[in-house]
Amino acid sequence: MSNYSAMQNTFSNSFKALSNPNRLALFSRLMNCCAPGTKCDATIAVRFCVGDLGEGLNIAPSTLSHHLKELNRAGLVEMERKGKNVECWVEPEKLKALSSFFQPD
Amino acid sequence: MSNYSAMQNTFSNSFKALSNPNRLALFSRLMNCCAPGTKCDATIAVRFCVGDLGEGLNIAPSTLSHHLKELNRAGLVEMERKGKNVECWVEPEKLKALSSFFQPD
DNA sequence: ACTACAATTCGAAACATGTCGAATTATAGT
DNA sequence: ACTATAATTCGACATGTTTCGAATTGTAGT
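ok -> structure tokens follow
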């Protein structure tokens, strides 16, 4: 347990997911709730459907879908189908984990 | 100023630098001071010469050099020649900036 | 000057990533 | 059943990344 290099691997996968500017933009929208037409409330996980998330990013739907899948695989973004749409959000715990990675003990 | 997408770009470059497991290991050593034969003192930026940093990572010196250069270009690691060696360290400010990226306002 | 050690640059090979358009699946409403 | 909208999968192509060994540069000591 507490396998050092396994944890390192998890984090490097997270950072890989955030290393692409488009993916980081998607993640930031979910994280900051500063996206078009959204009220800001940091206590509740913000939800977007896939299409709205990609708004203004100028990427093809297939590319958007691919990026969200990567974020989901890295464990950074949750996804759930809701009718015709698929809703996406970030769990606050994930933010805490990432934030504390950079805080020396 | 306070150009949103420029800041996003800086961060995606940082995360790209940390997306490689070997580079993340190098960065972690400088950050955590948990490396072989080092006393732990979080108040002072820890310094390693390039060779010692790569200890146990099983990568060629040329690869090690390349990775450190990437970390340096991303602005995450500082480097300074000191005689035969080149010393590397992480500025505590960088850690603070990265950590607070994940903290919603 | 010569030697030894530390680190970097260069070129090449194998592999991974970002992107698209076309085709497909999922769901809801008519 | 049919149609429209949302999202995904697939195959392809161009570009980037990781890694190495060989050659090179920088520095200190003999």
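Residues 34-38 of chain B have pLDDT under 50 and may be disordered.
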